[in-house]
Amino acid sequence: MPEQNIFQPDPKLSRSSYVSSLQQYNELYKESIEHPEKFWGNIAKQFHWETPADPKNFLSYNFDISKGPISIKWMEGASTNICYNLLDRNIKNGHGDKIAFYWEGNHPEDFTRFTYRKLLEEVCRFANVLKMHGVNKGDRVAIYMPMIMETPIAMLACARIGAVHSIVFAGFSSDSLAERMKDCKAKVLITSDGAWRGEKLLHLKKICDQALDKAEELGHHVETCIVVKHINRVTAPVPDLVEDFSVDMRDDRDFWWNDEMEDVEPSCYPEWTSVEDPLFMLYTSGSTGKPKGVLHTTGGYLLYASTTFKLVFDYKPGDVYWCTADIGWITGHSYVVYGPLANAATSVMFEGTPFYPDVDRYWQIIEKYKVTQFYTAPTALRSLMKFGDQPPSKHNLETLKVLGSVGEPINPEAWLWYYKVIGKEKCSIVDTFWQTETGGHVITPLPGCTPMKPGSASFPFFGVKPSLLDEGGKEIQGEGEGYLVFSQPWPGMMRTVFNDHPRFESTYFSKFPGYYCTGDGARRDSDGYLWITGRVDDMLNVSGHLMATAEVEAVLTEHPRVSEAAVVSRPHPVKGECLYCFITPNQSETFDKKMVDELKVLVRERIGPFAQPDVIQHAPGLPKTRSGKIMRRILRKVAVNDREVGDISTLAEEQIVEILFQNRPEK
Ligand code: WT7
User: Fold this and answer.
1) What does the pLDDT look like over 129-160, one tens digit per residue?
2) Distances (CA, A) of 355 to 8, 103, 310, 381, 384
3) How far, in Å, is the centroid of ligand 1 from the Cα of 228?
4) What's the pLDDT tens digit per position in 201-220?
5) Which of 324, 408, 486 to mutate to test the pocket of ligand 1 (most atoms within 8 A of CB)?
6) Coil, strand or helix: which one is 93?
7) Could you give the CA distance from residue 425 to residue 589 in angstroms, rounded to a whole number?
8) What confidence score (pLDDT) does residue 1 get?
9) Could you give the ipTM of this predicted complex?
10) Fewest CB atoms within 10 Å of the CB: 31, 51, 445, 528?
11) Under the phi-then-psi rule, with left for phi > 0, alpha for psi from -120 to 50, and beta for the rest, what region is 293?
12) Is pLDDT larger for residue 545 or for residue 535?
């Protein structure tokens, strides 16, 4: 790999950023690792603890399975309420009239805003509704909702009464929703009649009806379903109106949100919960078996979501922050809801898609709200890059200071486009590496501080201690590539798998005793920068050379006529494994032999002759989940022409699988 260019942060940004130099970062980092109690204890002072923490018992943990059960406890004995800290505390500090959310609907003329005071009132009302329906502290509440204001309201209402929310992204099938509601034994389900995605109207309540029936078949009864009337509700003239949109409501089970909110008190005393009580769970797919209910608790999560938000986005009063992630994913939990509200921030929340009504919608929203921090995913950037520089150039993006990326390694091609075309070479790009399990960013540059290398997530956040291990579990010092693990806990990390602590221990702590195992590989370069190389199961070994599919993909997408690339490993009789590549050309480009030859040369040049792909196939599209993750499992099947592809129901477009088999160059 050739040395990458280094991009220095803009001096103007450095002058005002919280952490403004690597030297300052190093000092703070050292303290956070050597004295975590002191470091996080200081941060904890800004929040309200009904029962304070005992400084002598601020952190206790065991990461070594050979010494006993894995356990992680921060501030044990303290009590608080996270909703109180996000809303009441900020209102007491004078932010009641501050905008918490600018809500932007699918249709550009449909928008509204919520102040902190208004948000608290709605949350309290809904907390009372939940209580009325028998929801108690510790009960699980399933949420299957679009990006509307009722979603954070429902989450915070749960938190206010100590109930545990379990959000299922509203793109999952009824089977998946049923399975998850059964696993967490949800008492109540909250949904909406429907949702808009561009020109598409999704019938969420219908999916919920099927899921509730299926949960019943699986032996779990959900008592109550509360339904927000969203379709045909308008906040401004002429948005999308549909005739004859109706849903089935079952008398004994289904209630309209608005009816329920009418006769309840607008205040609700918060339930003081122990800081290690569960706050929420969120399912994440495992490489084997059913999804895991990742469980996060209250106190540590508050400290971590809040601190990462503030420092990684360098959020200052007056800024307007926008994260495009759906609340149904961890990014939405930590960086649409909990992190921003803990900082009394003003955020944009967007219901729609980047392509509706036109492909400049994101840029138009940034201009409209004067967004200062923008956080999105590489897959979104690549799909927008396809349309060239003209759509963003129509808009004033001068307010931007920090650009975030999350979810997968960002290929240098997309990084540079983000940096130059969107950020005008003056924004810091924060390539944030983290997981559902980590609760917040764990490896990331800091704005105005970290010199950036396109494609590198760079350095650990405060309190996070990464190591790279070889197959034998030995720590790799200096330059090298290995398993990315963490050797001590940070406050926001998951505490267990819901109802299955043994699975938590075996998934994350059994491979290398003493370490939390991310399941990702990483490389440390000669400057100490960390480069995430992709899931360990996406690593491949070609003739004794360890490499990551992501590395090869980054090279392939450098080609000016390539839009997206995905690489999988295929068994090879001589080399052990070889590379099988799927290529999606840019919109108006054709896939031809010339392109194949150029790509082979490019990979040889950039990585080495051993990395030359054996097969390069045309892929008009890639098999992606609704969240945009490429399902490499399916591509591996295509590579070996094995039509036993298994379950493809989580794909956004199932028909792409057949097209890929048809397109195999080897008949
Ligand atoms: C996996 C976690 C983190 C919230 C969204 C995804 C990959 C995530 C990066 C990044 C390289 C990344 C990893 C990780 N990943 N961010 N900046 N660079 N890889 O959460 O669904 O739990 O997925 O996403 O492979 O393990 P998730």
Assistant:
1) 999 999 999 999 999 999 999 999 999 999 99
2) 32, 18, 30, 12, 8
3) 31
4) 899 999 999 999 999 999 99
5) 408
6) helix
7) 28
8) 42
9) 0.99
10) 528
11) beta
12) 535
**Ligand 1 pocket member 62 (CB < 6 A):** no
Q: How far apart are CA 180 and CA 142, in angstroms?
A: 9
Q: Which atom of ligand 1 is nearest to the CA of 285?
A: 21
Of the candidates 491, 156, 165, which has an alpha carbon nearest to the alpha carbon of residue 341?
156
The Å distance, Cα 326 to ligand 1 centre, comes to 15
CA distance 74 to 69: 16
What tokens does 643 get? 């039509």
DSSP assigned state of 49: -
Strands (DSSP E) found in 258-367: 273-274, 278-284, 292-297, 320-323, 346-350
Residue 466 Cβ < 6 Å to ligand 1: no
Q: 518 CA distance to ligand 1 centroid (A)? A: 10
Within 8 A by CB and 6+ apart from 296, the residues are 278, 279, 280, 281, 282, 439, 492, 494, 495
Q: Which residues, at least 6 apart from 596, have a Cβ–Cβ distance to it below 8 Å?
A: 616
Burial (Cβ within 10 Å: 0-12, 13-18, ≥19) of residue 299: buried
SS3 call for 337:
helix
Q: What is the pLDDT of residue 287?
A: 47
SS3 462: coil
Chain centroid to CA 464: 18
One-letter amino acid identity for 474? K
In angstroms, what is the span from residue 193 Cα to ligand 1's centroid? 31
How does pLDDT run across 466-512, given as a tens digit for each residue? 999 998 999 999 999 999 999 999 999 999 999 999 999 999 999 99
DSSP per-residue codes, 198-254: TTEEE-HHHHHHHHHHHHHHTT----EEEEE--TT--SSSS----TT------TTTE
Contacts of 509 (CB under 8 A, 6+ apart): 63, 65, 70, 515, 516, 517
| Segments in 578-665 forming alpha helices (H) | 593-606, 632-639, 656-662
Q: How far apart are the first and last CA of the chain?
A: 34
Altogether, the residues listed in the chain come to a count of 667
How many other CB atoms are there within 10 angstroms of residue 18's CB atom? 16
Helix (H) or strand (E) holding 496: strand 496-497
Q: Within 10 A of 350 (CB to CB), how many other CB atoms are there?
A: 24
Q: Across the strands, what pairs with 201?
A: 196
**438 CA to centre of ligand 1 in angstroms:** 10
Average pLDDT over residues 401-428: 94
User: Tens digits of per-residue pLDDT, 433-478?
Assistant: 999 999 999 999 999 999 999 999 999 999 999 999 998 999 999 9
- Rounded CA separation 60/43 (Å): 18
